[in-house]
Amino acid sequence: VDRDTPQDMATPTQDLPRAGGFPEIPYKRNLPYRGPSGIAIFAGAAAVMAYGFYQVIDGNQRRRRLKAEKVNARIALYPFLQAEEDRRLVRMQYQHKAAEKQIMSNVKGWDLNEKMYHTDRYVPPHKVLQLGDRI
């Protein structure tokens, strides 16, 4: 059978949809949820920074209070520590005078109570450092 005859061309056959039509083709983009929006991320970052600043300020205030407490404790303890040091100095001066009295017992005219310095002011004893001493 020759298909190129004009008779076959006159009645063409066409594809038609089935009865009831074809099902709908899903052409919409189905993208998954990609996370929070930019505003939500910005708000979250601002909240984290605000909390961090709060912690820094609170830590600075706490450190300042502890430092003030330490200073006040040192101020309160200073008279007691000074009294201890004064007692140690009096004890040391008494021992030095006793040693000086024993050492200079053979020297005639030696006055034990003569001032070493030519002043009426109190001069605290100086510690003589030697090699190997720790400061």
Description of the structure:
By secondary structure, this protein is an all-alpha fold. It has 2 helices and no strands. The protein is rod-shaped, with a radius of gyration of 51 Å. The N and C termini lie far apart (124 Å). The mean pLDDT is 86.
Quick structural overview:
By secondary structure, the protein is mainly α.
Largest sheet: none
End-to-end C-alpha gap: 124 Å
Overall shape: it is rod-shaped
- Label the structural class: mainly alpha
Q: Give the oligomeric state of the chains in this entry, treating copies of one chain as homo and distinct chains as hetero.
A: single chain
In which range does the helix fraction lie?
40-55%
The radius of gyration is 51 Å
